[in-house]
From TrEMBL:
It is a multi-pass membrane protein. Residues 1-209 form the Cytochrome b/b6 N-terminal region profile domain. A ubiquinone binds at residue 201. Heme b b566 binds at residues 97, 196. This is Cytochrome b. Binds 2 heme groups non-covalently. Heme b b562 binds at residues 83, 182. It is found in: Mitochondrion inner membrane. It comes from Tigriopus californicus. The main subunits of complex b-c1 are: cytochrome b, cytochrome c1 and the Rieske protein.
Length: 376
């Protein structure tokens, strides 16, 4: 064991983060997604930087620059496909990471959880801004629909929309500021990830059993470094398979048509990772109510650290809680499916029922597990 004095302060911090960090011996594969998300973030920042070198934020040029770069810029097609599909894999990792936190009670680490939810909000904002940049039909109309939601705000709604647009419609000023924000936000996210890790290492990781593991830990390297590397291979493999063999599988064909304010797509919908929230938005007939429900779909995660506490962290020993949790998972998938359907019956009613069930989980999980605590 080397003495701490042999290392500089920066080296000591890095060494404590990835080498000597005490880690519970029984954490499972579900704990791999933190490191996988770090890889995704690094990949998105790097590929985004490369793409930004050949992008022009102008409504008359953006679409054609993106299309022309496929053939004229060396390997631009690869970086574009990696960036687009990397966003999808980023959200897969995020949703699984959050699901693990909900199941195993990681939200009880209040600082870690709260910063994580802020990271989720910023990543969602960055993904939306990036989706607008190619200036295809779905990009243009997605920007128009989502930014118009701010008009539902009482008194200041109209002024906020004009400020966001930089004018009286989605136009060149909108695209320019969206590009600037999309470029900056990932670096803010990276800073918050560092803060997220600081509080995580200060408080220690949870474990599947939900009990204290202070006397049963191992160093992070090489036990979990190797495990994370194996997980990275299983995660990166499908991503590269998608990039090479079917790069536009998860995209919308409408986005290969230049944005046209005079032609509205038959069915406007966001990328798949926003469909659950989009279904909740459409489920409320009132515009302001829909905006509130849309925001609450993510902001409700802030409630979890203050929800009723149980005697054992997590749901491993709560059968009723497990039933509720896996019901939430099913509801999430069904909401994603409903959000991809047209705004008509029976999909509206289905979305309303599913939205009610989605929010019911957060209201019921605390009391249900508390009741089981008393029964046992």
């Amino acid at each position: 064991m080397y003495k701490a004095s042999r290392f500089s302060p920066l080296t000591s911090i890095i060494r404590h983060t990835v080498v000597t960090l005490p880690t519970p011996i029984n954490i499972s594969t579900w704990w791999n997604f933190g490191s996988l998300l770090g890889i995704c973030l690094a990949s998105q920042i790097f590929s985004g930087l490369v793409l930004s070198l050949h992008f022009t934020a102008h409504t008359d040029l953006s679409f054609y620059v993106v299309i022309q770069s496929f053939g004229d810029v060396y390997y631009n097609w690869w970086f574009r496909a990696l960036h687009a599909n990397g966003a999808s894999f980023f959200f897969i990792g995020l949703y699984l990471h959050i699901a693990r936190g909900l199941y195993y009670g990681s939200y009880l680490f209040k600082e870690v959880w709260s910063i994580g939810v802020v990271i989720l909000l910023l990543v969602m904002a960055s993904a939306f801004l990036g989706y607008v940049l190619p200036w295809g039909q779905m990009s243009f109309w997605g920007a128009t629909v989502i930014t118009s939601l701010f008009s539902a705000l009482p008194v200041i709604g109209g002024d906020v929309v004009v400020w966001l647009w930089g004018g009286f419609s989605v136009d060149n000023a909108t695209l320019t500021r969206f590009f600037g924000l999309h470029f900056v936000l990932p670096f803010i996210v990276a800073g918050l990830v560092g803060l997220h890790l600081f509080f995580l290492h200060d408080q220690g990781s949870s474990n599947p059993l939900g009990v204290s593991s202070d006397f049963n830990k191992v160093v992070f390297h090489h036990y979990y470094v190797l495990k994370d590397l194996v997980g990275a291979c299983f995660f990166i493999g499908p991503l590269l398979g998608l990039v090479y063999f079917n790069p536009w599988l998860l995209g919308d064909p409408e986005n290969f048509i230049e944005g046209n304010p005079l032609v509205t797509p038959h069915h406007i919908q966001p990328e798949w990772y926003f469909l659950f929230a989009y279904a909740i938005l459409r489920a409320v007939p009132n515009k302001l109510g829909g905006v509130v429900a849309l925001a609450a779909a993510v902001l409700v995660l802030f409630y979890m650290p203050v929800s009723p506490k149980t005697s054992v962290k997590g749901l491993s020993f709560y059968p009723w809680g497990k039933m509720l949790f896996f019901s939430l998972v099913g509801v999430f998938f069904l909401l994603t499916w409903a959000g991809s359907k047209p705004v008509e019956e029976p999909y509206l009613v289905i979305s309303q029922v599913l939205s009610f069930l989605y929010f019911s989980y957060f209201a019921l999980i605390g009391p249900i597990t508390r009741i089981q605590d008393k029964l046992l």
